[in-house]
Specification:
- The chain is α+β, with helices and mostly antiparallel strands.
- The protein has one domain.
- The chain is built from 6 helices and 2 strands, in the order ααααβαβα.
- Strands 1-2 form a two-stranded antiparallel ribbon.
- It comes from Marinobacter segnicrescens.
- This is Nucleotidyltransferase domain-containing protein.
Amino acid sequence: MSQRNRYNLTDLMAQCDSAAPIPDELKEWDQAPSVGLEQTIMDGQVDIGDVILQFRERLADNYAVIQLVLFGNRARGDYHCESDVDVAVMLLGLTCTQLSNPS
């Protein structure tokens, strides 16, 4: 198996053209409001457990949260400083269709 190239955010940003137009399919994602936790997690500024609890509190304002499950490299313990956080959210009484099409 060949070794994968590793990149960091600085390397990737250096390759970006900030004047390039955003494709239509990405505009909604790009313009979505921040949940306010992205910067907090970066650079190990706080314990990841605290961030997940904050996330749960924000969810609990609108949903009946049954359980949060940490998975992926952070759960396995093989993460690095630029790793994302994978959290599965279990909600009471809502299907995926209901969540994606609120009425």
